[in-house]
Amino acid sequence: MDQSAFYRVVAATNFTLLGLWWVAIKDREDLGGPSGAGRYMAYLVSLQFTIPAAVSLVAQVAPEIPAVWRIGFTAAGVLGAIGIALLARQFALRTDATVLPWVFGLLGVPLYLGVVVVAVWPGFADAFNLALTPIEVEALLLSLIVVLGVQEAWFVTMTPRRETTPSSPPEPDS
């Protein structure tokens, strides 16, 4: 597999998805308007495109020097796991969805943590008899993360917001 070509495509695709996400939320009062909580959730979704795009660029910087992509993937995995956990929490707080926040968390967090494990443990693929190099395992994980990110954007955009009531917790300012 041509790693450079793969990561070029992933970077370009995710930056395109990020741009489309910005267009999709532009006129959504609940995601881009004065509500700090709405903007926060929109930002957390944008991370699901920004992180795979950025780490794909890092993977192309010096593919012959594994430490470069490993450091990038480790940082991306940690930030992604935190971001998706926060997104799942915000989604649960701001909508009546009960299953999807768990799906986001139970799929997304382990995928991002898998990125970290493969980056810090180069023998991961060999330990599990995978016929893949570590950067190829990262490519598979990143592909799944991209698919999940698109689903998150869809559900965040299409799931009705919870009606605020006097007993609802106040939304953060930003």
From TrEMBL:
What keywords tag this UniProt record? Membrane, Transmembrane, Transmembrane helix
The residues that cross the membrane are: 6-25, 37-61, 67-87, 99-124, 139-157
Protein name according to UniProt: Uncharacterized protein
Q: Which organism is it from?
A: Gordonia rhizosphera NBRC 16068
What taxonomic lineage is listed for the species of origin? Answer: Bacteria, Bacillati, Actinomycetota, Actinomycetes, Mycobacteriales
